[in-house]
């Protein structure tokens, strides 16, 4: 005890000499606190379940590009966790085991358990869990302490191999250091692989060249894993890429599955390093196999535009029963002849192919495009042969989505009429295909139609299990799509800057930044001004607006003036086509006089926009204004001013231009105008020379009964009855006239309530439709503004007709 006291006194004396500004006991207490903290941290790490998170394949390749051995089986972890597990940086390998916290998708059968036992490493198996694989480990700044980053391709390999839950948010693993007897992967002397069938014809020479370039660098392979080879110029080299450019534009990547590995010391290895000239690579026969899923694509965001999320979810949910259902469910669908034939509709450039490609990637199945313009010929026999060839190609690379592009041209002859022979042949062959085909590896048919109008052919329309339409995007959807393009651009510029060496310390770059608040405000402003734009238009606008910016992502900022300039140029290019939505720049101050007319228009249009919850919910919608007068009195100018002041799109249509001599074409022109207006909503549709389109119509009826039906839509004051209202109205009025009278009376009551609210004579609770009561004075005011739709000549004609047949 005396000796320990002497040691303590010596320690305190040394601390006082070393740190004279602090009490001598501070340093020992600090050491004890650090020891306790380190002990708690190590205990916490030992008990921790790490969440396995996938990162984009492209970004993973950037992180690993300088590694001596290229491997999908590399993980990135927090620096502190790395320091805890790795003592020697030259031996940076760890075991991963599936945690009990991970959800299992289903119980394994006896046969699957045997296969799984063979695939697992025998040296590292235990009763409680199984070793996934031996992984090479690297630290990465910015990773949370309980996360492990893994390549997306490798992540989905494990999900499939160990029958884990499809919910990638619920995959947890444990890490452990290598056992003393555990062997690290060595160079393999022999490797056998299966090439996964693709939808396109691939020559053996091309495959040999691709594999030769791929294994030029040492590659760590694991048995029973599927690997992806991206067919890019960087991976293949300039010569191979240019020589096979036509094929590569269609076939973006190929997949192979490693099935056997041998080394000098073992004839059955779980893992091995394969390198050209040192490993004998044997390519066995091709197979039909599901490929690893892709949800990120090349970026840390979805691989489809966020503005099309509803379409993506609808299409994916329609295909899921044929891909991920149980065998019993698939058999039931087949027995009831419910086949996966989907129609996807949308204008050209609306994102149909992009959404379909994203769904195929997320399901892990191939996508093969067949052009209907190439299939349809002037000779029915040739068309039938091409249909058979296309369907046969699909059966050779299942699971696959067979997409018929430009399907609106299918089944038509040279004169544009239906070809019953081709249509019936197509129906019969599809039924044969799905009747004989096994749904284990599904074949899905998707038809792309470049229009939002349904197909006229009933025989073809009856083929589809479901029709999904891509409607014009709302403001929020346009904003999310622009943001998606901006996030992709930021990441592309980051990768390019790393590639050319402009950014060296890329680990500390915030890869999740993508966009700041100023850029968000600019994108929201542009989204408000792009009514009627489809996805392709937004992409062109964004690309034109950022071409001149710096390649360094740290200096990448959006410029609102550049966006507005490009937006004006794009709208100017569309201005010659009928119904191109644009917002004119005409202010109320540009119009002299007409004060009463301006006030009335502002009350009729401005009020519903500001208080839409009061006016639009009662189904008494008054959004139309009739401007009449001689030419040159300012009707068009007033309509443009309304669009400008209310920030609405402006659609100008000449009435006579809609008329057509062919039956049904005039009606079609009118439908197209209002379809464009709905796509550009909120929108002002200016119909000039309306008198050429609108004939007189209407017959008088029972005013009291009609008024009673209309007034059910709002509250009347207690002292007001429908009989009193009917007594105020002249007898010869139509139902449309009564609708106008009741609607104007309702608007009069709303205006009085709004005036009270603005004068602070009522609160927010009173600004609901049920609290507004229409009185007799509102109907009297409405009648003072009422103009009958029937003139005296019309009434005399109808009375004469009634007396003749009465």
Topology:
Layout: H1 2-18, H2 26-47, E1 50-55, H3 57-63, E2 70-71, E3 74-77, H4 79-85, E4 93-98, H5 110-119, E5 131-139, E6 147-151, H6 152-161, E7 172-177, E8 190-196, H7 204-214, E9 219-222, E10 226-230, H8 233-236, H9 238-243, H10 245-250, E11 253-262, E12 271-274, E13 280-287, H11 309-323, H12 327-335, E14 341-345, H13 352-363, E15 366-371, H14 372-375, H15 380-395, E16 400-405, H16 420-436, E17 443-449, H17 458-461, E18 466-469, H18 475-499, H19 517-528, H20 535-546, H21 560-574, H22 595-610, H23 612-615, H24 635-645, E19 649-654, H25 655-658, H26 665-679, E20 683-688, H27 703-710, E21 715-716, H28 722-728, H29 735-758, E22 773-774, H30 776-784, H31 792-805
Helix pairs in contact: 11-13, 15-16, 18-19, 18-20, 20-21, 27-28, 27-29, 29-30
How far apart are the first and last residues' alpha carbons, in Å? 129 Å
Q: What is the CATH architecture term of the largest domain?
A: 3-Layer(aba) Sandwich
Strand content: 5-15%
Q: What is the overall silhouette?
A: globular
GO molecular function: ATP binding; ATP hydrolysis activity
GO cellular component, one term: peroxisomal membrane
Organism: Clunio marinus
Pfam families: AAA
